[in-house]
Amino acid sequence: xxxxxxxxxxxxxxxxxxxxxxxxxxxxxxxxxxxxxxxxxxxxxxxxxxxxxxxxxxxxxxxxxxxxxxxxxxxxxxxxxxxxxxxxxxxxxxxxxxxxxxxxxxxxxxxxxxx
Length: 115
Hints:
This protein is mostly beta strands. The chain has strands spanning 3-7, 11-12, 18-25, 35-41, 47-53, 59-61, 69-74, 79-84, 93-100, 104-105, 109-113.
């Protein structure tokens, strides 16, 4: 049973860069059967896909966030990281990491962008 756990700062100042890490256990980042992804949910809004990384390390991003987003991974620790630059209060959300296909998600981590 795969488990995913997000970690990162709860508070980030505007214009700074947000780094979130997802620790994966019970499944490998390099498994060709799966991809790993980030989504977020802002207050009062629906879920928004942020981006994903595949077994080979290939990445894909939401067009609306692509210019500010980077997803990378460390296969030695089985973790993958979301980097979001130039954050604004509109990036305030609960961020979730997950594995697909399927329905495996972390518990989510609240990120607030505020000075």
